[in-house]
Amino acid sequence: MSFLRYALMPLIAANLFFAAAEQTSAEHAVLETERAWSAAIVSGDAATLDRILGDELSYGHASGALDTKTSYVARIKSGAQKYVSFVYDAGQPPAPRVYGNTATLVAAATATSITDGKPNVKHLRFLHVFAKRGGQWQLVAHQSVELHP
To answer: What is the pLDDT along the chain (149 residues), one digit of tens a residue?
Structure first.
């Protein structure tokens, strides 16, 4: 029994190493999707949003308004929702938590936008939920709340 235990230790260690590497790879891919989202909302890049947002997107704004993928992309494309800047509190998004083909990311940021012609500066905490489909991570849910000092 002792021999078997020692013989299996390198295999167990290798499996743990590769599982950790895979997790790191998945976290990196989710972070790239998150960064693409924040860059796309500021630049008004509807094509990127169309690619990285899941078709069933539920987008809950801090104001209580709710968008679908279609309505959100349309608001960005038309300029009805225009982000001037989006700055994460830590300067960059935090590490996501990956659960197989699902990932979550909780962050705080200051969003400066013009919504329906009115300027807004909001300090937000938000939750993003991502799903992996066909090897690509997509944002499928966004919910934010405004933080007050």
So the answer is: 555 555 545 544 445 444 444 558 999 999 999 999 999 999 999 999 999 999 999 999 999 999 999 999 999 999 888 999 999 998 999 999 999 999 999 999 999 998 878 898 999 999 999 999 999 999 999 999 999 87
Task: Output the CATH code of domain 2-146.
Answer: 3.10.450.50
Helix/strand/coil (H, E, C) string of 42-63?
HHCCHHHHHHHEEEEEEEECCC
CB 126 within 8 A of CB 107: yes
Euclidean distance between CA atoms 85 and 109, whole angstroms: 10
Domains of the chain: which residue ranges?
2-146
| Stretch (H or E) spanning 2 | helix 2-43
Q: What is the DSSP letter of 125?
A: E
Kindly state the tokens that stand for 80.
């009805």
pTM: 0.82
| 60, β-bridge pairs | 66, 143
Residue at token pair 């959100």? 72
Report the distance separating Cα 54 and Cα 14, nearest Å.
35
